[in-house]
Design brief:
TIM Barrel, binds the ligand NCc1[nH]cc(CCC(=O)O)c1CC(=O)O, eight-stranded parallel beta barrel, 11 helices, binds magnesium ion, alpha/beta, globular, 12 strands
């Protein structure tokens, strides 16, 4: 008898393919990154991120209502800080009336049940465009961690549900957790960018926030793309220090790391499909070289298949619109 098994039987039509499908995508899967700028009536497209925008607080309100109506329930906030407010210590990051703090309040006033996660790192505030305080051309770990902890408390005071440290300083999760507990923000969570690689895929994001490093690169704090086991060490430490959710970043080129982290630990795992991944798909689709929607959905399935519990993606809205 030939053949003993015919695997194609389970692919015969859409109904049987649906029946045996192992992964699916819903609005619950997404964190929506949002870029916020000063001003009024601003909705400016980011040149290297087609169809993605920086919003001033007033237009952000409309965007939030749209996200909410689509069933999207959590946002990841980034702010673009004017040059004159940048310094080496990220002083503006602690301003209770700063753009981030106002953005958090605006969102909570518009959609009180939207989960607000805030990016915690110095780079948008840094005159050097680095994620930490610079001394003699070096990024100083422990002094930076102190600022990150204060910054986290400031975001919590403004109403953030989660802080999301994306800086890759050592020990920052513990310091942030302690600072939040000291101030009685026991319910404010931490989503740690635990395995964050020194990646060239962040290029368009740095355009969006005007936050590219002014000298050197981020290789003394972000991870070497050559390394796999180091991601597990980083993640384990962040969990021990109190991270509620851990993240792997970037996404598509790091699916092996997502799977490793998911297999090894029992906390929720997030993956970040970063700006460069978005830009690649958009650019190829614009040229007619790839089918935009199909490639987008395939990338989402890949994240789920790799074990991601949630996906931060600039495609979140497009995906949900396509599904509904
Ligand atoms: N620390 C800031 C930060 N938070 C998220 C990203 C990248 C996100 C993206 O590319 O979409 C970056 C840039 C960087 O580390 O240089
Ligand atoms: Mg670490």
């Amino acid at each position: 008898m030939f053949p003993l098994r015919r695997n194609r039987r389970l692919r015969t039509n859409a109904a049987i393919r649906g029946l045996i499908r192992e992964n699916s995508i819903t609005a619950n899967d997404f964190l929506v990154p949002l870029f916020v700028v000063e001003g009024k009536g601003v909705k400016e497209e980011i040149p290297s991120m087609p169809n993605y925008y920086r919003h001033s607080l007033d237009t952000l309100v409309d965007e939030l209502k749209l996200l909410w109506s689509l069933g999207l329930r959590s946002v990841l906030l980034f702010v673009k800080v004017p040059d004159n407010l940048k310094d080496n210590k990220g002083t503006e990051a602690l301003n209770p009336e700063g753009l981030m703090q106002r953005a958090i309040k605006t969102i909570k006033n518009t959609c009180p049940d939207m989960i607000v996660m805030t990016d915690v790192a110095l780079d948008p505030y840094s005159s050097f465009g680095h994620d930490g305080i610079v001394e003699d051309g070096k990024i100083i770990n422990d002094d930076t961690v102190e600022v990150l902890a204060e910054m986290s408390v400031s975001h919590a005071e403004a109403g953030a549900d989660f802080v999301a440290p994306s800086d890759m300083m050592d020990g920052r999760i513990l310091s942030i957790r302690e600072a939040l507990e000291d101030e009685n923000f026991t319910d404010v969570g931490i989503m740690s960018y635990s395995a964050k690689y020194a990646s060239a895929f962040y290029g368009p994001f740095r355009d969006a926030l005007d936050s590219a490093p002014g000298f050197g690169d981020k290789k003394t704090y972000q991870m070497d793309p050559a390394n796999r086991f180091e991601a597990l060490r980083e993640t384990e430490m962040d969990i021990d220090e109190g991270a509620d959710i851990v993240m792997v970043k970037p996404g598509m080129a790091y699916l092996d790391i997502v799977r490793d982290v998911k297999n090894e630990f029992d906390v929720p795992v997030a993956v970040y499909q970063v700006s460069g991944e978005y830009a690649m798909i958009k650019a190829a689709a614009e040229k007619g070289w790839l089918n935009h929607d199909q490639v987008m959905m395939e990338s989402m399935m890949a994240f789920k298949r790799a074990g991601a519990d949630m996906i931060a993606s600039y495609f979140a809205k497009d995906v949900i619109k396509l599904l509904s």
